[in-house]
Every structure is written in structure tokens, then in C-alpha cells.
Amino acid sequence: MHEPESTILMSGRPVLSQFDFEGQVAIITGGGRNLGRGYCIELARRGVAVVVNDIDGDAACAVVEEIKREGGKAVASLDTVATVEGGKAIVAMAVEEFGTVDILVNNAGNLRAGDFADMSLDDFEAVLAVHLSGAFCVTQPAWAIMRERGHGRIVMTGSAGGVYPEQGYSEYATAKAGIVGLTRALAAEGKEHGIYVNAILPQAGGSSMTLTAEPIPGLKEAKFSGPDSSLAPYKSVEAVSPLVVYLCSSACSHTGLTLSAGAGWFGRVFVGLTNGWTTPELGVPAAAEEVARHFDEIVDTEQYEVPEGASDELRHIAMRLGLAIG
């Protein structure tokens, strides 16, 4: 069912939009700068009342004032996402100011770059606390409201560094990989309650988080720096925001997806399951030497499927073994 069409201004030109968010309420964590700021402003332009959450109070308040100057509704939240109390306070502000929560974009992040051998547990846990625990702490109280109302849209922020990381940033990679797993689990649990959860891997560049991080030698290698430099002029918040707007809308009926966006490109990132190799005789375990001989076949990606859940993997294995599926 499509939203009614409305007219908004985009790049100074009136454009018909099927996304009418009038009356909806959104929480954007890390909303004071860069991507978060862009999401706040774009959703507010489309009629959403926005809770701009950021521990940088000046930045959050500046976004709120910008939205209000354009006739939108917004309020600043300065609570941390990294504690249960902070998460509850953020959601409580949305309810107190605007009555409910329809949309949540978990965007807040931090970074402690460095080689794994030199990383402290404090730095490792500090990153997980904001990215992964932060997503939990804000989502859980918002989830209760969405479940009761039978409607909700949640966008998690992952990263390419979490699904195919390069050298360094192991704490960041761990947190962002966890975000993908959390997204899939919540999507499976939330669909029957009208809650749709998807993850984005944004390529926006120039965020304060990455600019203040210590450089990793591997990121200077030609395989990374070459394409990154080519894309840099086209990386922008505006190139990512359209995907977020769609995922936040009632028009989006997809859930559990991980999607990449940046520089004018959009695509899906997924975990696939190869056809693999089956032992010659069912019930007779393979020897390690056999696994070694067939390893190229095991990892060959020419034929694969994309499981929707763990049960799909069981079905896939049973079918490859020629077993009847009840």
C-alpha cells in the first residue's frame, strides 16, 4: 500500500513524493553531525518530528534550530546511547515531546583505531558500548512502543569494515559485524509485529569519527587508497539519505537486509551458502585429507544461495545430501 503523494522541495525543485511522514516521530542517534544530521534534516523536511540525539550538545541544538527555522519539529537529546538509562531517556523524550516513536535510526558511533596487538580491552569495549550496546539500549525501549502499536521502522548502521574489514579497526569490525547479526535477529522477531529492521553500510566519508582516528598503515595501500580517492568527490550525506528515507517509510516492506550506499551507488550485501561438497557415503565422516582435496569445491562461489535464516541452511544441507525434508 503506497503512501499518499505529497510535494516537497528537492534541490530547489518541487518533486512529487509517495513518502508522506506527516505525524510520525523519529529518533536519530548521533544526529548532530554528518550522516546523522542529514537524516534529521531530510526526515524533518518530510514532516517527521525528530529527536536529534548527540552527546555533542552544541551540534544537536544547531540541527534542531536549523529544522525549526524551516518550520519543522525537533528537540535535542544529549543522553548517551551506551547505557540502559541513557537509552530509556532518549525514548522517553520522544514520547514526552511528540507522543510516540515510529522510526529509529541507530547512527551513533565512535572509533579507537590501532593494531590488534596493541589494543587495550578498554578501547575494545568502548567501541562496542556505543555501536552495539548502544543499538540495544535505544532499540529495546523503542521496540516496546512499536510492538504495542504494531508498526515501526528501524535502521541500523553497519559498515563495510564489519563485513569485509581491512587491516586494523578490529574493535570497530567486531561491533559492526554484531550490528548485522542484531539486525537479522530483530527482523525475524519483529515482522509479525509490523516492525521492519534493516542495516545500512554507508560510504559518506569525512566523518568526525574517522577524521580523528589514528591512521592504519593498511588503509594507505594502493588497493584501498586508489578507489577511495576516486570515489571521494562523490561521497556525500545526500548520496546515502535517500536509502534511509525509503527504509524508514511505510512503503518499505523489506526487512532483515543489509544494504550499501554511497557516491550514487546502492547494493545489497549478503551472506551466501555455496553448494559445497558432500561425502561419498552418507553417514561416513570425511577424513581431513578428503576435505583438503575438495577444498576448492567447498569454497567455490559459482553456485550459491542466500539463506533467510538458520533453518534454510539446514534445508540446504539436507537437500545436498539427498535427504527427504519433512
TrEMBL record:
GO-annotated molecular function: oxidoreductase activity
Residues in coiled coil: none
Keywords: Oxidoreductase
InterPro entries documented for this protein: 2-oxoA_DH_lipoyl-BS, NAD(P)-bd_dom_sf, Peroxisomal_Beta-Oxidation, Sc_DH/Rdtase_CS, SDR_fam
Repeat in keyword set: no
Pfam families according to UniProt: adh_short
Homology family: Belongs to the short-chain dehydrogenases/reductases (SDR) family.
PANTHER family xref list: DEHYDROGENASES, SHORT CHAIN, SCP2 DOMAIN-CONTAINING PROTEIN
Protein name as it appears in the record: Short-chain dehydrogenase
Organism: Streptomyces brasiliensis
